[in-house]
Amino acid sequence: MAEMPMLKFVDRAQAYPGKRDADARTQDFQEIADRYAVPAAEAQAGRCSQCGVPYCSVHCPLHNHIPDWLRLTAEGRLREAYELSNATSTMPEICGRICPQDRLCEGNCVIEFSGHGAVTIGSVEKFITDTAWAEGWVEPVAVGRSRGQSVAVIGAGPAGLTAAEYLRGHGYDVHVYDRHDRAGGLLTYGIPGFKLEKPVVMRRVDRLKAAGIVFHEGFAVGEDASLDELRARHDAVLIATGVYKARQVEVPGADGAVAALDFLTASNRKGFGDAVAAFDDGTLDAAGRRVVVIGGGDTAMDCVRTAIRQGAASVKCLYRRDRANMPGSQREVANAEEEGAEFVWLSAPLAIEAGTVRASRMRLGRPDASGRRSPERDPGGDVAIEADLVIKALGFDAEELPTLWGSPDLSVSRWGTVLVDGTTLMTSLDGVFAAGDIVRGASLVVWAIRDGRDVAASMHKWLKAKARAEKVAA
């Protein structure tokens, strides 16, 4: 009788794929982690305890069938593992790279609670679909029989691309409108290549284009067409723009700070070989400069690690709380420290001046609504930090879509996010839906994929009802 390949967590240690040496990886923008070899992936998948109640799946926004595809991987049934992994996610190899697994699936792994170290779910997820691409198992989008109805998707980020794929599968003509010259949204321009190499994103986009989804790149709604004009062209519209407006640093001299997304976009464009005037003239190039990044989330870590790779003279991250209370991934902080970044904890900017950031020492008070302890100024003294380039990475807010798009009847919250019906995901405008960060605020890619999946199902139901009503009326 063959040995059961699972439940090996007691006698088999947790082992992530190796990372390249810090000195070597800071010389380029390639991903820092190797990919599992087949035996290592099978061995690590076999550590899964096959829980009766799989908390990893429960805490995954997509509710991926994680224990099942781990078992298939451990048994050497990789193609089946790939097919199951792709049954719930349109971008599993991307989630495997950039999801904060330590806060989601792996952070809730039962064997992590037992002290044996979580199953390396994200790395196995990446391995499965990367193997599928290499072996030619990734099939074209299965396009449904034409329904004679068309859909506009505004925004080519993860929510928009996911919805587009599902809607095309239902047989709709899908047009994706995006103001950038390449699809992918933050996957393409916001996340550095050392976390997500761009060919990984582009092959997903190419697969959608091959399915007949029409991409209108470099198309700005509000300039090239109004929302009402798109509503007239299509049977339904999805708003999936994400949130891009940088939150401000409310201190004197803040106008001299660079927005994180401007900095990251310029760097990613250079990776594509684009001419970027603001980079080429030195404005958005950290080379040889003393860089200070203000913020403690994953975007701040992206900026810190990008500046190091650009050849900054020094890189410091200024954050008003301590390490335990920061919102970003602890893995990303560790990677940044390995690469030479310095963290200035419990410090908040007071003013940005020529060559200097003046900062106040902080201390932690009572927990706030988020559960983290609130920072308050420590009278123990201020500090001056030398800086030639200051980057603000304090998060993102929604743009003023009703004004930008000439659609005053589009209802938004006091934060500028689009309001939707909690069941149908339709906005205040008939036939106009919304999903992703533009509804929930800045969040995770995996949540955007989940929202894209959900809104596609809702739009499909509404469009079928519309077609039936039009047939009766005729």
Automatic annotation (TrEMBL):
<dbReference type="GO" id="GO:0051539">
    <property type="term" value="F:4 iron, 4 sulfur cluster binding"/>
</dbReference>
<dbReference type="InterPro" id="IPR028261">
    <property type="entry name" value="DPD_II"/>
</dbReference>
<dbReference type="GO" id="GO:0016491">
    <property type="term" value="F:oxidoreductase activity"/>
</dbReference>
<dbReference type="InterPro" id="IPR006006">
    <property type="entry name" value="GltD-like"/>
</dbReference>
<feature type="domain" description="Dihydroprymidine dehydrogenase">
    <location>
        <begin position="25"/>
        <end position="136"/>
    </location>
</feature>
<keyword id="KW-0479">Metal-binding</keyword>
<dbReference type="InterPro" id="IPR023753">
    <property type="entry name" value="FAD/NAD-binding_dom"/>
</dbReference>
<dbReference type="GO" id="GO:0046872">
    <property type="term" value="F:metal ion binding"/>
</dbReference>
<keyword id="KW-0408">Iron</keyword>
<keyword id="KW-0560">Oxidoreductase</keyword>
<feature type="domain" description="FAD/NAD(P)-binding">
    <location>
        <begin position="150"/>
        <end position="452"/>
    </location>
</feature>
<dbReference type="Pfam" id="PF07992">
    <property type="entry name" value="Pyr_redox_2"/>
</dbReference>
<keyword id="KW-0411">Iron-sulfur</keyword>
<dbReference type="InterPro" id="IPR009051">
    <property type="entry name" value="Helical_ferredxn"/>
</dbReference>
<dbReference type="InterPro" id="IPR036188">
    <property type="entry name" value="FAD/NAD-bd_sf"/>
</dbReference>
<dbReference type="Pfam" id="PF14691">
    <property type="entry name" value="Fer4_20"/>
</dbReference>
<keyword id="KW-0004">4Fe-4S</keyword>
<protein>
    <submittedName>
        <fullName>Glutamate synthase (NADPH/NADH) small chain</fullName>
    </submittedName>
</protein>
